[in-house]
Amino acid sequence: LLIPNDRLRYYLIARLGVDGASTGEAEIITSFSQIYNNSQMEQLQTAKRQIQDYLQPTNDPTLSIPTRYLTDYKNYRHDIVHPHDTRSTTFTKAYGSDYLIGAGSFLQTALIEELREYEKDDPEVLLRLGLRWFAPEEVMALHGFPAGFGFAEGTTRIQKYRLLGNSMSVRVVSVLLKRLLTEL
Fold first, then answer.
1. Residues near 58 by beta carbon (within 8 Å), at least 6 away in sequence
2. Quick one: CA dihedral 83, 87, 88, 90, positive or negative?
3. What is the rounded CA–CA span in Å between residue 122 and residue 120?
4. What is the distance between the alpha carbons of residues 16 and 160, in angstroms, rounded to a whole number?
5. Which of these, 152, 121, 117, 157, lies nearest to 137 by C-alpha position?
6. Mapping DSSP to helix (H, G, I), strand (E, B) and coil, where does residue 166 land?
7. C-alpha 96: how far from chain center
8. Higher per-residue confidence, 53 vs 169
9. Which distant-in-sequence residues (6+ apart) come within 8 Å of 119 by Cβ?
10. Residue 164 pLDDT > 60, yes or no?
């Protein structure tokens, strides 16, 4: 199942043979299509979900993007996603902090259709979009963490973002581990 979170990654898995020697020639896989058959790839492509599938109902005002972030960064285009979109950028450990350039997507909550296409660096428009941070639980879902995964009691929101920042997709790691372990 493809998740709507983009992050170009390079994964390297390797193992030694029983005698400690290399197991043979290197194989470079550049796409899931080299692992899955055509039918499985079709299922993956049609299963791509929208961001709204990962959202939790919230009216938490502390998730709102501060106005100064939208008006003071005039030469920066924030990555703004709509609940119906099928991609977001990755979330770094700086997400939710004062360092927001390239730290992750903002969620547009004002679902006004004319605001789907807009000038992304116009502060007047940005203020009308109802932008908010993704909650840590939503970031976990976008990274593929299983339902029920949580944090220790007392972990602050900023600590959660730092722990989740730059996380690898749990689903991708799962596929890689299965491939490594089934070829033993």
1. 135
2. positive
3. 6
4. 36
5. 157
6. coil
7. 14
8. 53
9. 125
10. yes
Kindly report the pTM of this predicted structure: 0.76
| Pair of tokens at residue 65 | 């993007």
DSSP codes joined into one string, 50-115: PGGGG------GGGBPPHHHHHS-TT----EE-TT-S--B---TTTTSS--TTS-PEEE----GGG
pLDDT over 70 for what percent of the chain? 68
Per-residue model confidence as pLDDT tens digits over 96-109: 888 877 788 999 99
- The arrangement of strands across the sheet holding 131-132 comes to 80-81, 106-108, 131-132
Q: What is the dihedral of CA 44, 47, 52, 56, to 10 degrees?
A: -80
Which H or E run includes 132? strand 131-132
- Distance between CA atoms of residues 47 and 32, nearest Å: 14
| Residue found by looking up tokens 């799962």 in the block | 174
Where b means 16+ CB within 10 Å and e means fewer, 129-142 reads: bebbbbbbbbbbbb
SS3 state at 40: helix
